Amino acid sequence: MRNEQDEYTPGMKVLIAFNSHRSAASNVIGTVLAVRTGEGFLGYDAIDVEFTDPSDDSVHQLPFGAVNLRALDTARLIVMAKRHEARAAELRLLAKEAGDV
Description:
With 101 residues, the chain is of the alpha+beta class. The chain has one helix spanning 74-98; strands at 13-16, 28-36, 46-52, 59-65, 69-71.
């Protein structure tokens, strides 16, 4: 069965909305390596994605169902950027309070 919501192609950047393999790597951007039609759970497509786990910078190549992925768009990228910028500011403040900066 195919998920008609999004068409994924090799080289495409996607958001891994939920990562059942590595929970710390949910809401990260990955790159589609391959789409294996009908080879996933219950006959859905398996989409092989390469991503970097932000907890330890390790690179992984794992299969996902389309339900776990989202196509990237400008609005989603801006929301992610704002979230990361806010977290970075928080970390800089903590470092400054610790006297390390």
